[in-house]
Amino acid sequence: MTVMSWASVRLTKVLERIGARLRFSEGLLGIVTALGADAPEVCSAFVALLSNHHEVGLGVVLGSNIFNLAGLLGLSALVAGRVSIGRQGLWFNGGISLVVSAVVVALVLQWISVWSSLVLLALVLVPYVALTAMRPRQIAKLKLPPKMKQFLGVAISHVHRDAWKRENITHASWQDALWATLSVTLIVGSSIGAVNSAVLLGSRWGVSHTVIGMLVLAALTSVPNVIAAVQLAREGRGAAVVSESLNSNTLNILVGVSLPALLIGFAPPSPSIIFAALWLLGMKIVTLFVASHRHGLHRAGGAAILMLYMFFALVIFLWK
Predict the structure, then answer these.
(1) Contact assessment for residue 276 and residue 60, using Cβ atoms and an 8 Å cutoff
(2) Closest Cα partner for 161 from 241, 56, 99, 41?
(3) pLDDT at position 310, please?
(4) pTM beyond 0.90, yes or no
């Protein structure tokens, strides 16, 4: 896990430099760096699914999404005292994240087909990424209804609000391509070892695949994300924390579920998978509600989110 975490942090920094060289906006840069930080969860889920451990694979994705809400937002609020982003920015990022989660959960529960989910996700994510890549002055030039244009302009400005606080990033070089290749290789190799070891030890110690996927691997593979979010919160970059958290959840569940479903398919969901999928949706709604306070997400809201995760972990641990 140490190697995986180190490789994930290295990959995130490389992608950040490449994005900065390409002059990505703050919002788009957040999506790119979230992809690097999500690599351990996604790779672990892929390895488990390809190894026919469906309960473990889906458990890693769903469990890490739930853990990320608690760690990236709840813990960050407790440590920093407040995680703040304008309501428009929160609703813009959070609304997209919630819709993506709902579509993927419907896919996991086999309420819709893989192709139907891909069409729905494309209709949501293509405009989202395009808008996130823009800057506020570009939003003002779009031919949209005035109220929608005003909302999007404010939302995008909230996403970009912390851009001036970003530390100077050195330009990308050819060495970054080598680091990216090495990092991905280490993450994949570590994921194979982590999943196989966890399944083997779980079988030896009598620990269920549900606990292994949703609690053990989900938490361990999310460590880089949590560390980065807490650091951003302590720097006062609330917009970056919220963007990273929600983008991380969106990419995690999208790449970790939709792509494997397209390539290898899923077995019918178990009761624990159904519970985790529905809990994720409910917990995300609660998180967006408490974070919508006009002063941002305070310690009380952060504690509430952490308590929701602890209750979830207790139920999964005691699941028979």
Answers:
(1) no
(2) 241
(3) 94
(4) no
